[in-house]
Amino acid sequence: MRKIFSSPRLVTKMYRKKDRENTENAAKYPGSFETKTMQPPAEGCVFTYHTLVCPLSDFAKKYGYEEYMPYLCNLDYVMFGVLGVPLYRRHTCFANGDYCDFSLKSGVQPLPYWPPVFTQGKGYQ
């Protein structure tokens, strides 16, 4: 999997397809995940996409599960870390309201995901 993520063009192509699929799904099922692959990617990154609608965040806000969201968001670091892919993010739908950013950097080690990234004091959500 790490090889796939080392090719920004391939990843961008895959995620643009996923953006279209998410848009179609959201048209049928409002409130579903919606994503947007960013071109150009965030500064210092080889690939960036944003989650514009997160049903997990919406559910937590609606039903009072806010305290669990940082831990659920930390699972993104776990997932990418297991794949050997260095994920960096500055925004989450839950904490910042607008979107979750997923940025991949090339040639760096994944962030340690335990203790949870949001507790490490490095400015990452």
Notes on the protein architecture:
The structure is a single chain. With 125 residues, this protein is of the alpha+beta class. The protein has one domain. It has 5 helices and 4 strands. A 4-stranded antiparallel beta sheet has the order 1-2-4-3. The mean pLDDT is 89.
Topology, pairings included?
Layout: H1 2-5, H2 8-28, E1 34-37, E2 47-53, H3 55-63, H4 69-82, E3 87-88, H5 93-96, E4 100-104
Antiparallel strand pairs: 1-2, 2-4, 3-4
Primary descriptors:
single chain; 4 strands; 5 helices; 125 residues; 4-stranded antiparallel beta sheet; alpha+beta
Largest sheet: 4 strands, antiparallel
> Going across the major beta sheet, what is the strand order?
1-2-4-3
Number of domains: 1
Oligomer: single chain
Radius of gyration: 14 Å
Compute the number of strand runs. 4
The N- and C-terminal alpha carbons lie at a distance of 24 Å
The run of helices and strands is HHEEHHEHE
Quick check: average pLDDT?
89
Structural class, please?
alpha+beta
Q: Count of helices?
A: 5
Beta-sheet strand percentage? 5-15%
Helical proportion, percent range = 40-55%
Shape: globular
- Model regions low in confidence, pLDDT < 50 over at least 5 residues: none
